[in-house]
Amino acid sequence: MTLAETAYAALRRDIVSGALAPGLPLRMTLLCDRYGMGMSPVREALNRLQAERLVVSMPLRGFIVSPVSAAELTDTTDTRILIEAEALRRSIAAGGADWAQAVRNTLAALLAAADAGDDRLEVLHHAFHRALVAGCGSPRLLELFERLYSESERYRFHALTVEARGGSRDLATEHRAIADAALAGDTPGAIAALTAHYRRTETVLKARMPEPAAAPRRRVKAAGSTARA
User: Fold this and answer.
1) What tens digit of pLDDT does each residue of 8-19 get?
2) Could you give all domains of the chain from N- to C-terminal order, each with its CATH number?
């Protein structure tokens, strides 16, 4: 890996895991000290992360970690469903034996990792969802899949590990339902299962997000007395 790739991987890992909190200013000198490298690879990494919407460039302030919000989560989820439903439809129609075997293999690896509490769970989760849509035949759809997956990953990071290791959801059943329908050629069933899976995740994540701070109440002065608006 080049220094820029190393910086990108380290920064991305820390943003997704929450080690660098949403809204945190990303001071160049502090990042260089943290990752032990010069400004050029760190700046290149930040520009790449900005393209993935994981950092934001603020006028006169430099970069910050992208804030999170329920509205952003809903928008990301809506768009993921739109893109992945179409990619999955095309994969079911055109995917051959290699596509089907990849879906089976990645599902088996994901389920085994969840049972074992494997630290590679997120990597295997990505591999499974990528395998589902990999037969779509559209590089642009796959590029959009990757970008949206990346944007949603930090919302999902902690929920995925917690739910997989004794949470309230049966993620194994959810993933198996998507794969079974896709492999059976049941396009409506596969899309419905995928959509339900993402909506459940959205609901879980929203429930765990802190409530937005209430706006301060404004004092108004009326006819010789002070009241609260």
Assistant:
1) 999 998 998 888
2) 3-65 (1.10.10.10), 70-208 (1.20.120.530)
